């Protein structure tokens, strides 16, 4: 039995999460760090959407008089994904505003440089 074929979206989401996590850890540029964070968010949304979908079932709208829950997809993962996207966009916008303020103050987006300048300012 081919498990990768049946769990294709879950495998892709794990790979995407790893790419985003490594980007978050290895990059010094703050913008690149937030891109990695957004890749990780997208991986989680893909995973939730993949887990929420069941082949052969339909959206939870009563049709044809079928009231048995077995025939419908669980709407909770889709709701979680939509809520997560809204929160993610808000956090990204706020974070980019903070990054812009950091750039205006320090003149760089390199995390090591910002820490070095911050320590020098503290020592004065």
Task: State the domain count.
Answer: 1
Order of helices and strands: HHHHH
| Sheet having the most strands | none
Output the CATH topology: Helix Hairpins
Architecture per CATH nomenclature, i.e. the level-2 architecture: Orthogonal Bundle
Q: Determine the strand fraction and express it as a percent band.
A: under 5%
Helix content: over 70%
Helical segment tally?
5
**Rg measurement, Å:** 21 Å
The CATH class is identified as: Mainly Alpha
State mean pLDDT (0 to 100 scale): 88
Account of the 3D structure:
- With 124 residues, the protein is mostly helical.
- It has a single domain, classed as Orthogonal Bundle (Helix Hairpins), CATH 1.10.287.3510.
- The protein has five helices and no strands.
- Helix 2 (8-26) runs antiparallel to helix 3 and helix 3 (30-52) packs antiparallel against helix 4.
- The longest helix has 31 residues, at 76-106.
- The radius of gyration is 21 Å and the shape is elongated.
Helix and strand arrangement:
Blueprint: H1 3-6, H2 8-26, H3 30-52, H4 76-106, H5 111-123
Offer a quick outline of the entry.
By secondary structure, the chain is mainly α. Helices cover 73% and strands 0% of the residues.
Summary keywords:
mainly alpha; Helix Hairpins; 73% helix; elongated
């Amino acid at each position: 039995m081919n498990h990768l074929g049946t769990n294709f979206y879950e495998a892709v989401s794990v790979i995407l999460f790893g790419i985003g996590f490594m980007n978050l850890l290895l990059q010094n540029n703050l913008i690149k760090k937030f891109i990695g964070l957004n890749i990780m968010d997208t991986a989680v949304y893909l995973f939730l959407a993949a887990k929420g979908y069941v082949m052969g079932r339909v959206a939870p709208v009563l049709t044809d008089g079928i009231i048995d829950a077995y025939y419908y997809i669980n709407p909770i993962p889709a709701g979680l994904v939509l809520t997560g996207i809204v929160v993610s966009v808000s956090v990204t916008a706020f974070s980019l505003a903070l990054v812009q303020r950091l750039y205006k103050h320090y003149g760089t987006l390199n995390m090591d440089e910002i820490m070095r300048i911050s320590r020098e300012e503290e020592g004065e």
